[in-house]
Amino acid sequence: MTLSEKLNEYSKTIGFSFKELSEVSGVSTGTISNYRAGKQIPKMNNPKLSLLAKAIAEIGISKGMVFDYDDVLRELQKSVGGKIEVSPDNYILNMNMLLKTLNISNASLARNLNYDPSQISRFLSGERLPADIGKFSTQVASFIANNYSDAYSRQLQKLFSCEQDEIDSPAKIRKKIIKWLGSNVNTPVENPIDSFLENLDEFDLNDFISAIHFNDIKVPSVPFEIPITNYYRGIDEFKKAEFDFIKSAVLSKSKDDVIIYSDMPIAEMAKDEEFAKKYMAGLAVMLKKGLHINFIHDVHRSFEEMMIGLEGHIPMYMTGQISPYYFSEPQSKIFSHLLKVSGTSAMCGFAVTSDHEDGLYIVTKNKSEVQKYQNSARDMLKRAKPLMEIYRSDRSDEFLEQLYNYWKNGSKKMIFSGLPIFTISDELLTSILRRSGKPQEIIDNIVSFKNKYYEEMKNLLIDNCIVIEISKLSRESFNEHPVNIGLSELFIEEEIPYNYDEYVEHMKQTCKFAEDNDNCTLKTEKNRIFKNISFSIISGKCVIVSKAKAPTIHFIIHHPKMIKAFEMFIPPLRNND
Length: 577
Prior knowledge:
By secondary structure, the chain is α+β, with helices and mostly antiparallel strands.
């Protein structure tokens, strides 16, 4: 039964008008009219379905009929699945995976299917489903079968886990796509965001510092002799050039910022683990000297390569001495370039893309040449945009100000490693902090922050929808890996753990918060998603990634490609061991 049919059935059985349903639920008559006409089908977890279910149950009771809210909501959610067997969430996931695999843009799909681009965007973001999902799936399948069958044969084989003879004609491809979109089985796809977050979750700066003996590093002062200008060719000499530049920057007396840009391919370089270790150790020495590094990342390389680069720099970002940037315009793909400057030396190079072996690289200490390269690097930095803002404890006030501003920018999804601090009662929070031996001044500060956070979220939920994802742990899972109070916004790194009864009570308060706020949707998982990081996605605006300890640090990510990747990201369920 469709949503339209289900609403009409409740109206007839209970005896209410849709104007009355609108007044009681707060859902506009226009939206209800679109639901009844089948012009609009909301996502299964859309807060409006909860409002309608609550209103239907209340109207039923007022007319002497017993309708359980949970039963009504379940029926409404079931009705928006349309004619497909897959859940709405899986349908959107599979559709996005299909289009990403074949590199089909929203604009291209809209143009070829005669849809408005904004409609396609809403479909693919899960904001709403097509009125006739079966028809939409068939249109998509036909478009792909008629235009992409030969060029993307291997990608389709991998996506569908099938043999070539199963997709060797447009008719077979069309059938396979329609079946796959309606399947509850998703082909596993390695997500670079997952790898990035997992490494960030496990990373401990103190362990890293200890492993590389950072505190024992002595910034060398023995003169390092290289020619005023030296030339290098090929990959092996390129590696030597990198180290020569780092040595020059470290051994000079200058404390000027370092600027680094490179769009050279990095996937092959990343396979050389020994080079990667030495390179990161070289950067560590630069940071030990006190140099600030401005990295201009090439985000127009493949997403996987971009994430490899970012993931490799996690340890450096944690120090607070690195500022990442990017160019919004793609660079030439015929040639690859690099430019690195310090106070007294410079490195530049170029190669024909995909022919790295014949590249030419120059390291120079010639003052006039270095000056020219510095001017070029500074001009590049002026044109670059911040890839992300990085906040450590020395910028705590600035971070909170930014955080409140970003919260006002629209609907969001919040994924917590523990439980959201804004849903806990003053009494429970105070009790936990006192049990943990915190002085009254700190308790008052934390409770004050929590209350401000609570008010901000309440105000935000008046006009915006928020999805909160948390882990609902069993006693056994909790005992294996206790959960701490989430205080990363206050940059409090000391662990303040719940006992299990406190954790359960805060869980109940979180559920109550979601029930009391119609625009808030709560999702729970049985297993822990991440242990040390939480993140918020402000749709189309930014992603805020927060790490709770070692050290406490927040990344506000602005790049559209990364924001989109986070929006499509499905958190993996981690084993609690």
